[in-house]
């Protein structure tokens, strides 16, 4: 027979087990997300590399950085690039969001599906497709120059040219943010304008579009911040013209300077982190400043898509946009992979080959980088999914005192550039992993990729958790279950579809990632993105295109299967 003291001890143990789990999740999240940034700040204020003995506190790294004209040139190039790409993406994305959500256009279902492709598919292969078709020696550029009087006004190897390429990947992001605002906005004012005699287009432009200003500003801040952390684009297009961005400036001084200027690079990383953190704060303020744009209270008034005579022209323009930014680059990448030579002077049908795929299969580096990326995405995505589930449950289903800040912590990696994440874990491993066991293995890269992707998994999982009422939690607690038991036996089981969707998206993100690996990769631990970047620069365009096509095929297969099982709604939330 169980005695009263035993009952008390059991209740005490159960109660404190839940508390221990909650605090353990909180501490591990803060340590893994924020902790690695501490060595970066330390390295920026230390006179010698952290792995060397000696050294002292100094501001010389910041003085050397801020007095370097090359740094300010890189900052200027990045700012111009970010401004041009963001402005173009805001214009295109807002117009597409209004047209595809508020106008009854022919083919708009197809267009909506195509809008998701640049977000869900790896960006590097599409970027390589752009270069294959629109660079100086690209297929489209050469064909236009040879067969038409149309002047080729673009040059991808310039800052505006790189901004043009980036616009294709930023526009879908703007589209998603503005579309969400349109879906949740009240169309009462538009209906009132129609009642007062305004035509459908005038009512839409004068009543609905001005209410999108917070969403447009929000998307603009996000896009501008993303442009400041871009790495692959300036490495592929800027290097040949000696155009440095902030990211390539930091990489060059880390890799190619002798001796390596690691303190200066750390100082630059800190300044970049401060800038992007400030932009994140600004974005949160803009996202929260929506009350001034509320039109009515209660249930929003429904509004049917409008119809006007020029809708076929608009539909044709949108089709042309997708052809230029998505379909032609994808076709260029495919032709590059299946032809021995891609040139408008040679009929592609006469040079078809599968040799590039044989090269990928027979080349150890290609095959190893593909295998490594699959292992990192598969295993790392699993651990990241478990972490995201635990973090979300503690942040939104517990009574822990410090739970409210946990959601902000897990979203903070959105503001951390990939190269800063890689540098942060490099210094962390240098201090804590003296033998280099973790840093020289796939585990080091996998941890960095997982932390960088936590925000994506969290934003995919949280809506399902928020939509689930707390009645089952309370019923389990009333029945005697503690918090840990209720979460494990009830909520986790109910939320298994959301957990699976989160895993799929984390797999896709980690399979395509490569920025943090720039500071962590060692011989034998290459990932697919870095392999493509390095070998494309050496002229191995065909095999790299084949490898990129394999990456796209794997990603499309995983997303296609997930969509069949879980539907498309969950994947639309990831860009919001």
How would you explain this protein's 3D organization?
The chain is mainly α. Among the domains are: 10-42 and 390-526, MetI-like (MetI-like fold, Orthogonal Bundle), CATH 1.10.3720; 68-293, MetI-like (MetI-like fold, Orthogonal Bundle), CATH 1.10.3720. 72% of the residues lie in helices and 0% in strands. It contains 26 helices and no strands. The chain has helices at 4-33, 37-44, 60-66, 69-102, 108-120, 123-134, 139-147, 159-184, 188-195, 200-208, 213-228, 232-238, 246-255, 262-288, 311-338, 355-362, 364-397, 404-411, 418-432, 442-467, 471-478, 483-494, 496-512, 528-537, 541-566, 569-572. Helix 4 (69-102) packs parallel to helix 8 (159-184). The protein is globular, with a radius of gyration of 26 Å.
């Amino acid at each position: 027979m169980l005695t009263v003291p035993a009952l008390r001890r059991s209740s005490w143990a159960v109660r404190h087990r839940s508390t221990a789990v909650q605090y353990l999740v909180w501490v591990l999240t803060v340590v893994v997300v924020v902790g690695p940034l501490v060595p970066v700040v330390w390295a920026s204020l230390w006179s010698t590399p952290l792995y060397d003995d000696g050294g002292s506190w100094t501001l010389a790294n910041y003085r050397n950085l801020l007095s370097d004209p090359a740094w300010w040139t890189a900052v200027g190039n990045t700012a111009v690039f970010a401004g041009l790409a963001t402005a173009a993406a805001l214009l295109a994305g807002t117009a597409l969001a209004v047209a595809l959500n508020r106008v009854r256009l022919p083919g708009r279902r197809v267009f909506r599906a195509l809008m998701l492709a640049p977000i869900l598919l790896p960006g590097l292969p599409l970027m390589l497709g752009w270069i294959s078709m629109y660079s100086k020696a690209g297929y489209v550029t050469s064909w236009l120059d040879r067969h038409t009087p149309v002047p080729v006004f673009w040059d991808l190897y310039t800052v505006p040219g790189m901004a043009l390429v980036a616009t294709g990947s930023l526009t879908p992001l703007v589209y998603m943010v503005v579309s969400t605002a349109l879906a949740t906005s009240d169309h009462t004012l538009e209906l009132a304008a129609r009642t007062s005699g305004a035509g459908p287009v005038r009512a839409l432009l004068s009543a609905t579009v001005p209410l999108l200003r917070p969403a447009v500003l929000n998307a603009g801040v996000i896009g501008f911040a993303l442009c400041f952390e871009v790495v692959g684009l300036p490495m592929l297009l800027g290097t040949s013209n000696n155009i440095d961005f902030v990211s390539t400036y930091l990489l060059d001084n880390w890799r190619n300077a002798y001796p390596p200027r690691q303190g200066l690079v750390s100082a630059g990383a800190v300044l970049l982190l401060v800038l992007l953190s400030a932009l994140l704060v600004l974005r949160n303020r803009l996202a929260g400043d929506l009350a001034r744009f509320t039109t009515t209270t209660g249930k929003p008034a429904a509004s049917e898509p409008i119809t006007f005579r020029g809708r076929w022209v608009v539909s044709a323009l949108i089709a042309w946009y997708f052809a230029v930014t998505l379909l032609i680059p994808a076709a260029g990448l495919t032709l590059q992979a299946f032809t021995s030579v891609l040139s408008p002077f040679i009929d592609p049908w006469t040079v078809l080959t599968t040799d590039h795929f044989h090269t990928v299969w027979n080349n150890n580096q290609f095959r190893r980088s593909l295998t490594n990326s699959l292992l990192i995405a598969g295993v790392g995505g699993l651990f990241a999914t478990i972490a995201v589930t635990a973090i979300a449950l503690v942040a939104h289903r517990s009574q822990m005192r410090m739970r409210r800040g946990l959601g902000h912590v897990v979203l903070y990696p959105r503001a951390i550039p990939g190269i800063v994440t890689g540098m942060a874990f490099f210094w962390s491993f240098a201090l804590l992993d003296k033998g280099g066991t973790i840093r020289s293995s796939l585990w080091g890269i996998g941890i960095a990729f997982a932390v960088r992707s936590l925000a994506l998994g969290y934003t995919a999982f949280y809506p399902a958790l928020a939509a689930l009422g707390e009645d089952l939690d309370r019923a389990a607690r009333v029945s005697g279950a503690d918090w840990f038991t209720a979460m494990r036996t009830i909520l986790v089981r109910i939320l298994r579809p959301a957990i699976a969707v989160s895993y799929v998206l984390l797999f896709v993100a980690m399979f395509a990632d490569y920025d943090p690996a720039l500071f962590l990769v060692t011989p034998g631990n290459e990932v697919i993105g870095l392999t493509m970047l390095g070998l494309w620069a050496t002229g191995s365009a065909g095999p790299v295109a084949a490898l990129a096509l394999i990456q796209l095929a794997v990603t499309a297969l995983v997303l296609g299967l997930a969509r069949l099982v879980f539907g498309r709604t969950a994947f639309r939330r990831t860009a919001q």
